[in-house]
Amino acid sequence: MKEIKIQDKQAYLEENYPFREVPDLSDRKECIHCQQEIIVGEYKVFVDDTGFEFICCPNAPQCSGTLIDWIEKDEWVDDGFEGFG
Ligand SMILES: [Zn+2]
Known about the structure:
Layout: E1 2-4, H1 9-16, E2 28-31, E3 37-39, E4 44-47, E5 53-56, E6 70-72
Antiparallel strand pairs: 1-4, 2-3, 2-6, 4-5
The protein binds zinc ion (ZN).
């Protein structure tokens, strides 16, 4: 895995983001791998031997999380789950 530099991070994200709602570079999310708050625009891109590009956690390579591991901060809700019964 080799890190590559992205010139236009917003455009790159829009082209490569696998989900419908592309976040802004200024959005903050939480990476479930390293459990750190991350700023989307600080993502890193790594390319593997096959040429596939991964949008990775800003804390890569220490963190092996990629953008699919990023969740909205608001999703960390304590829903008061008390078990099934
Ligand atoms: Zn991470």
